[in-house]
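Onboarding guide, step 5: your first structure request.
Type a short instruction followed by the sequence, for example:

Predict the 3D structure of this protein.
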Amino acid sequence: MDPTPFQNVPQTVSTGALPGWQRVDDLVHEAHDRYSVENAGTVADYIPVLAEVDPDLFGIAVIDVAGGVHDVGDALHAFSIQSISKMFIYALAIQEHGHAHVRDIVGVNNTGLPFNSLMALELNGGHPMNPMVNAGAIATTALVPGTTASEKWDSIREGLSAFAGRQLDLDDEVYRSESDTNDRNRAMGRLLVSYGRLHDDPDDVVDIYTRQCALSVTAHDLAVMGATLADGGVNPVTGERVVSADVCRDTLAVVASTGLYERSGEWLFEIGLPAKSGVAGGIVAVSPGKGAAAAFSPRLDNAGNSVRAQLAIGHLSRSLGLNLFASVPTDEESA
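The system replies with structure tokens like these:
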């Protein structure tokens, strides 16, 4: 759809507010207590180092746009960001190149296929369907600022650190483990080159992409990063503007329809929030104008999404009134 007809229409934003600090804190603890006993799912094993993680780890964090912090459980336990990096790299790419150019290079529609599908790329003439699957994410990584691989990596690390409000470090063990099992992504990079969708050296771009996925974060970090998108691009902890409000809107729109891979439609229907998952067990969900909820637990369903994290964030979406499509206040629903 051509967005031009809407460019001169004034935008009005109405988001409501979160409950008081204590009520939010109580509900975050309630969610953690309720789902700590859930043992469904298995840890990722196609990346060897991830197969060694403690499956019982479980942390939740909620950060509101005023900077209020709610951490419980293993919210400060470090793990690799993995595919959650895709949403923030996409934001950095739009900030650099603009809405139209990035949309032309990387699409915005759900593939309906697994995140690492080569078939989805082939079926669409080499056009990545969205930036939240690997092919689209590799193409998006190539768009970040920098003329060399080293400069692009610096841009990514600095950009994601600005979202998190602190310097993020590379987990070398995860990076090496992923690099040793990265043949499918390397093939994807070369396929993108063959279709004219990637103009940099594909091995360099895939290596940068692998590094960004191996950055070490916590559930708390993810909640700060998500809250930055919720606050129109301003980090609510540091006060730094990271990206523009328009970039946040574009990013959250794509994440809403594609962030949980082939389960994205079910998630949006049941939970009603843009969210992104990663195979290390993290999920971050964003409620514009209110804040973000993040959870970490390594046991995954067969689509690669954390089972406990989905349950916890779903609980918070309903109890905190975060669902974007709800038109009746939560307290009236329960009356």
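Each response can be followed by summary notes, for example: DSSP finds 14 helices and eight strands in the chain.
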